[in-house]
Design goal:
Blueprint: E1 2-4, E2 12-20, H1 35-44, E3 52-56, H2 72-81, E4 86-88, E5 94-96, E6 99-104, E7 110-115, H3 128-139, H4 157-161, E8 172-176, E9 179-183, H5 191-194, H6 205-211, E10 228-234, E11 238-243, E12 257-261, H7 266-274, E13 280-282, H8 286-291, E14 297-306, H9 320-328, H10 332-340, E15 345-346, H11 364-367, H12 376-389, E16 397-399, H13 404-420
């Protein structure tokens, strides 16, 4: 990650666009979009005579520590090698994962999960304490987990994160080796969806403590409870995943090997695809229109948003008028059509289209408000107020320079803001 002096804001709901080879031993998967979708598609890819496939991963994962990983590339790897309590399938239905059953109290505050028999890749049993340790580690301030906010529904989580309570007072405990009990601060209707995230992936305390800061940095520095295990990790080159024979459902895992090739540049990825070096690549920008008529082209609306996280603890960035001025100054329609050009749709709130519907079957996005639609006059008005209230005139953003769409998006937004906002 490198710094660029540029401005960005919440922008678009992503589209997973790819080229995938067919026939022979090649199988296909899409490594873009949500981690859950990638898991399902990777499993579905094992067809015909194929016993393995090779896909473009994107950038080299910074870490495969579930507590610290917050990127798509690492997330798409983790969902294949570590299994959380439950799994959301391709139809957004909850399926058993490491937990084969669960129950919830009448008041919605206490959730109890019962684990199936399973082993880590080194043969040791997976236990409830492995999950309790992992969740406690995520919510311990010293860990610095970027994913801790996902678990603030757990009783006392906010107090523990603030250093006001000891982690032992968290509302999660192992009743026995196969039973985990969560107590929540208040009824949380989406709690089951959280059980399919990386914060619900188990971690072995002895392994984490043995490797310390290098845990999750090498294939040999981890153990695995998912359908695959990481056999080798050649940094900035490839990650080779092989079938985990200790996995509880190994007999139904039809793929023997998945090779994840680290390629960030889209043109380079397409060349690798054309040369037969990879079976699936993700397209961005002009490459989409170039290949959209190819019979091997496909696109799927992904359940993820591109957005900016603003550090409101810094002077100026905490100014509401400034942030809203930026949001109104961005033409998301133009961004999706002219820059991303991959089927992405404008995002005007943090819930992406297709994620959830209400009782009447209406998509949440259609049923809720559409905020901060492009309005240059309102942007100028708010910007004028912000200039009176703060001395901030220059904004920094950190984005991933290894991803070409990120650089193009940042340049587009810089142009938009410079042409709309004075000063």
């Amino acid at each position: 990650m490198k710094n660029k002096r540029i401005i960005a804001a919440a922008m678009a709901t992503g589209m997973a666009v790819s080229l995938a080879a067919c026939g022979g031993s090649a199988s296909t998967t899409d490594t873009t979009g949500t981690a859950d979708a990638a898991t399902t598609e990777a499993a579905d890819a094992a067809t015909g005579e194929g016993t393995g496939f090779t896909v473009q991963l994107g950038p080299n994962p910074e870490t495969l520590d579930p507590a610290l990983n917050a990127a798509v590339d690492g997330g798409n790897t983790l969902i294949t090698i570590e299994e959380p309590l439950l799994i959301i399938d391709e139809n957004n239905e909850i399926q058993p994962g490491q937990a084969e059953s669960y129950e919830v109290s009448d008041d919605g505050l206490v959730w109890t999960f019962h684990l199936r028999d399973n082993k880590w890749s080194d043969g040791q049993p997976v236990t409830a304490n492995d999950y309790v340790y992992a969740i406690t580690r995520v919510l311990t301030p010293e860990t610095g987990s970027p994913n801790s906010w996902l678990l603030t529904c757990v009783k006392n989580a906010n107090a523990v994160l603030a250093g006001e309570m000891d982690p032992s007072e968290l509302g999660v405990k192992a009743l026995d080796d196969k039973t985990i009990e969560f107590t929540l601060e208040s009824p949380t209707p989406y709690f089951l969806a959280l059980t399919d995230t990386r914060v619900m992936m188990p971690q072995r305390q002895d392994i984490v403590e043995q490797y310390g800061e290098s845990y999750g940095a090498e294939a040999s520095n981890m153990v695995y409870n998912g359908p695959f295990k990481l056999e080798t990790w050649t940094h900035n080159s490839e990650l080779i995943l092989v079938k985990n024979d200790q996995y509880w459902d190994a007999e139904n895992v039809d793929v023997d090997e998945i090779d994840l090739v680290v390629i960030s540049d889209t043109q380079q990825a397409v060349m690798a695809y054309q040369n037969g070096d990879v079976d699936n690549v993700t397209l961005t920008g002009d490459m989409v229109s170039m290949y959209q008529d190819d019979p091997e082209f496909s696109n799927v609306l992904g359940s993820f948003n591109y957005y900016l996280m603003v550090n409101t603890t810094k002077d100026g960035y905490d100014n509401k008028d400034l942030r809203q001025a930026i949001a109104y100054a961005i033409d998301r329609e133009s961004l999706c059509t002219n820059v991303l050009n991959d089927g992405s749709t404008p995002a005007y709130n943090m819930v992406m289209k297709g994620l959830v519907s209400n009782a009447d079957g209406e998509d949440f996005v259609d049923a809720s408000g559409q905020y901060f639609q492009y309005d240059t006059e309102k942007a100028k008005e708010l910007w004028a107020k912000a200039q009176e209230e703060t001395d901030l005139r220059e904004i920094n953003i950190i984005y991933d320079e290894e991803k070409d769409f990120a650089a193009n998006t940042a340049a587009f937004i810089q142009s938009q803001l410079e042409s709309t906002l004075d000063g």
